[in-house]
Design goal:
single chain; about 75% helix; about 650 residues; 37 helices; mainly alpha
Amino acid sequence: MKRRVVPTCLALVTLLTGILIGRYSAPISKVTAPATMPVAEEKMSGTQERDGSRVAPATPPPAVAHSTAETTSENPSAAHLIDEIKGALAQPTSRHTYATLSKLVDAVDPSNVREIVNLTQNLSKQQDKSSLAWLVFARWAEFNPAEAINFAQSMPAGSDRDRAMSSVVSAWAENDSGGALAWTQQMAPGSTRDQTMQTVVGAIAQKDPAAALALLKNFPNSRNRDSLYSTVFNRWANNDPSAAADQASRLPSGTGRDNALQMVASIWTSQDPEAAFSWANSLSTGQVRNRALQSVIAGWANRDPQKAASVALSLPAGSAREQSISLVAGQWGRTDAHAALNWLEDLPSSESRERALSSVLQSWAQIEPGPAAEYVASLPPGRIQQNAINYVAWQLASTDIETAIAWFQKLPPDSAQHQALTNVVSKWSEADPHAAADFAAHIPDVGQRKSLMANVSRQWARTDPQAALAWADGLPEASSRDAVLPAILGAVAEGDPAQAAQMLFRLSPAAQENAINTIASQWANDDPQGAGGWAATLPEGKARERALENVIARWSEIDPHSAGNWLSTLPSGGSRDSAVATYAGRIAGSDPQTAAQWAETIGNENVRNTQIESIVHNWLNTDSSAAKTWVAASSLPNEIKTRLLNQK
């Protein structure tokens, strides 16, 4: 009997995560394995899946005769087997332990399977439970898959049920792909069915990839079918990459063909990069060829970057060559940055060389940020150094903040150093915002200090607003507090604008205006009426005007009718005039006549006439007759009327 082999627990985890089956609120009707293998997916009838739950198909597959013999714990063979399994589990976890369990599970049969499953479900150690469950349910599926799948479906929703279902389907597909396929096809459409189908098709492809491909060609067009091509050609290319490549190139153009060709390219390269390159280079010119070449060269660069570099340079000028050079540089930079840099230095200056150099430096910074930082500091000023400084600073700050600080302080005092400092402090604030904020507060340059303090405090307030506020309140200078408190209130306003509004008293009058604008904008995104009500409580002045403008601008995008109704309740004044001007400007494109009528209610004559003239000017371009009729009857001064009516 063909057995399943799972070499390590890591492999088990990989298999389990491939199929997530059965997070259902109640078990579904029992099914039994069908006798024949359909050649195409059938349309579902009966009750359909909703939100991930399944129901039984309208016509259950025919039953398969199986033993229903059950034993009790008195059965000597079952008891003996349980003792041996417990003994194996008592040993330190290792490959040997797993192999021992696999051999012991060979003794599971219809007479003792229920007791072994019961043992599995009652294990206290999750790792033991996971390993044994996979083996036991796979074994059960070998001699009675219908009974095994029905039992797994009856389990409570959760990871144990998922694990049992995954094991059964995998083993069933390995031993009886036709039966597993027919059962899967009767599942209601959804992600669970898609994932199960991937396992089944993979099992068919392992034995007969041509049959699996023929099966897929009869499936309806869908994203799931496209992804299944990758599964089939993964198996096929591992066994016969040349044949797989030939069949992949014959597929109709589309995502499925692209997936298949890239899969073949990747796998073939791992086996024979020269042959893979020859094949990819022979494809018709276009995106498919370029992608295949990139897959080949990227894989080749992992094995032999020097050879891959030579091959990349042999390509004719064009996007495929440029992308290949960048790919090689990036891969080479992870293993030997100095060799990659030496290679690039011999290339003529070009945009592709610059991109490749950036790729090397970025890869190097991820592996060895310290040496990469020293190299970047030695580069001549320019775009390459600027870009490199950005990601080197980020990577260096992620691993060693003290080294990062010492490094950027050595850089020339220019925009590159400022950007490096911003990146370092930003990354630092993720791990220790208090220390990063204190550091920012002591930057000599006043403008940069305020900018960094605001950035750090804003980021800090998103995770711990009270701590950020306490730090800000403790700053000795009012100007420093005014620099950071608006940023903190803005971050608070993202989640609770009403709370942020209550904190305005912490700011000086001069700093309140910017904070009010931020709060009004944030609040209006989710609750424009609430934001408008708050803005209307502010005293007349610039802050109130800006707040109402922000609220009305957002509200008129969401619900212009409600915004207009609310706007009509505002008392006369400068803030109402500003809000009406904003509202009229927002609706003028869709309803210029209403916009002009609103503009006529503005109290300030200069503001009113300017707004009306702007609206009518555009209106004349879309409906000249209606616009001129309105202008003639309007209250505009004769001078403006004449100018507008004579507009051509």
